[in-house]
Structures are given as C-alpha cells and as structure tokens.
Amino acid sequence: ANKQYYYDENMQNGFYRVKVNFYEGCEKLSPLFEVTENQKSLPLDKTVQIYPNPADNDITIEIDNNYTGNIQITISDDLGRKRKEYKIYKNQKIIEIKENTSELNTGNYNVEFIFDKIKFGKQLIIK
Fold first, then answer.
1. Residue 80 and residue 84: Cα distance in Å, rounded?
2. What's the whole-model pTM score?
3. Model confidence over 68-106: pLDDT tens digits?
4. What secondary structure letter does DSSP report for 110?
C-alpha cells in the first residue's frame, strides 16, 4: 500500500521515524520526520538545501528545521575519499554555512549529513 497515514493527537514536538513491519518479519524504517505545532512535517533530508548546485567556487548549505544538536557534514568524492569535514552545533531554526569549494576538482561529490544518529546524503556537482 502507498501513501498510508497515521495520526496521533498525543505526539509531542520532536523528530520521529515510523517502523513498518511486513509479512514474515521484514521491517523498514521511514525517513526521519519532524512534528511541530506550526510546521508541516518534512523528512529531515528535505530541510537541508545545497546551492548553487552545480557550483563553481562557493556553496551555501542551508538547514531549516527545529533540530537542536550536533551535526557532522562530510564531503566525499565519487571514489568515497573524504575531501572536507565539519562538525557544528545547531541551536537555531535556520542556519547557513558558506563554504569555499575552489580546491575541489570538477566532478560529483556526496555530502553526508549526520544529525546525532540520523544519516543521509545529498549530491553536489562541482563544475
């Protein structure tokens, strides 16, 4: 089944995952999503933007959610080699991280984000 919804009026503000149990013991976890009183819930990876993409010399990473805590950001090339790594503490709703990418060669990169124990990646193209 697709697009099934669950609503619990007693859920508190915070970050959640849904665990779905399938036939014969298979299970899957949903992407992390945020529950707030004033904001539509979005998976955590949808609250992170990288622009411009493709990029030349500079990028901006914008994170817009109610998460507070440590974030690790790693930029790796298409062979999996780490090229840059940052550790930040997010304590406000929207943060922007400006980064010079001029030392990165033309190509495709994976930008991995770790919010505590939640991990996801986004693609970055350097032209």
1. 12
2. 0.69
3. 899 999 999 999 999 999 999 999 999 999 999 999 999
4. E
- Say if CB 83 and CB 109 are below 8 A apart: yes
Structure tokens at 114: 């770790």
Q: Residue 111 forms beta bridges with which residues?
A: 75, 122
Measured between alpha carbons, how far is 113 from 126 in angstroms, rounded to an integer? 18
Peptide bond into 54 cis (omega under 30): yes
Cis-peptide, bond into residue 43, ω within 30° of zero: no
Looking up tokens 């036939």, which residue turns up? 23
Q: Which tokens hold the place of 90? A: 């997010």
DSSP class of 56: S
Q: Which structure tokens are listed for 16?
A: 């959640």
